[in-house]
Each structure stands twice: as structure tokens, then as C-alpha cells.
Amino acid sequence: MRWLAFILCMLAAPLAAVQPDEVLEDAALELRARALSEGLRCPVCRNESIDESNAGISRDLRILLRERLVAGDTDDEAVQYLVDRYGEYILLSPKVEGANFALWLAAPIMLFLAGGIAAVTIRGRSRAVGPEALSDEEQARIDKIMKS
Description:
Layout: H1 2-12, H2 27-37, H3 56-70, H4 75-86, H5 99-126, H6 136-147
Helix pairs in contact: 2-3, 3-4
Pfam families: CcmH
Keywords: Heme, Iron, Membrane, Metal-binding, Signal, Transmembrane, Transmembrane helix
Family: Belongs to the CcmH/CycL/Ccl2/NrfF family.
């Protein structure tokens, strides 16, 4: 029963992150804020969006994002404001440009290299020469040893 309660609490935790006092009265702005906050990473929780996180900094970021939207910023301007302030780390899905381009390419390149190394290794093992057959003299000697 405790496990069931724990699982239900874990499932409900992301739903409780946005507090009622943070919600904007304008439904369209609130939808924009929710959509944007799903793509922003909590600096404390790692790999959790600020929309899902209960950390204090996430609350501050949600409020700041909503303030920027109310002030008239476009979606890109509001996100860029937070990126300028906290760095690209805050983006759950960083842009594929500059230094990030190398990071995006690293995984497929490593996978390709590992596959190549595995193929060469397997091919090398299949070409390995097995032991040579025994000569008649060696076979007779082994037979003699086995009979003794």
C-alpha cells in the first residue's frame, strides 16, 4: 500500500509544480508560458523542466518568464532573455550550432566507430586459423599415452 501511495505522489508531483498564484489571468498568455516552460531546464533538478520542478529557482524562472510575456516579449525574446541570463544549459534541447554542433555529432560518430571496430574484430576472429591437424606420428604418440 505504501508503494501505491509513493507512486501516486510521484505521478502527481509534476502536476503540482505550477502554483495557482503563478497562473496568468489571460488564458492565451498562460498557454504560451506553459509551452515555453516545458522546454526550459531547472538548474537544480537537471533534466526536469521548470514546469515540472518544485525547486525555488524554477518557481522564480516561471514567474520571470510570465513577467516577460506580460511585458510584450515574443516567445523567442522571452526564452533568449533567460538564455542570456542563465546560459544555454537552461534549454532542454539546445540549438544545433557552434560548439553544440560537435556534441550533437559526437554520439552518432562514436556509434559508427564502435560498429566499425566491432565489425573488424568479428571479421578478424572468423578468419583466424584453427589448430592444425596432428601428424600421424603425433596421433600415434597420443594414442599410446592414452592407453597407458
